[in-house]
Amino acid sequence: MTGPVTGAKLAQAARGLTGVPFRLHGRDPQRGLDCIGVLEAACRACGINVRLHVRYTLHARSLPPLAGIARLLGLTETQGRAEPGDVLLVRPGPCQHHLVIAAGADRFVHAHAGLRRVVEGPLPATWPTARHWRLPSSRI
To answer: How many domains does the chain have?
Structure first.
């Protein structure tokens, strides 16, 4: 993609990964992606050349140290309704954390371990948002 990185471009890049196989710690769309891999691949498609953590745990009582990823990508913490390209840290269950990228009104792209692929759709109402980040207007 060319031009400045916008939330819409990040959402479009994430949508382009729909159907890619799920792979724990995956960072290559040809071999498979996990939730952080989806974020990395979408960023790379937008021209943000970044390498995100390969080893991590999203199963913990406390929030994982993802502020470093947000800072590395130039994301700022925000609140309110998700806009295309926003990155959310959600809690699918007790002691579980998961990254998703907003694709549109109530639609999100994420690596679904149960379905074994990257999907787009609404999130279950039982997945509360723990953190919400957005590209700053200076990147738009």
So the answer is: 1
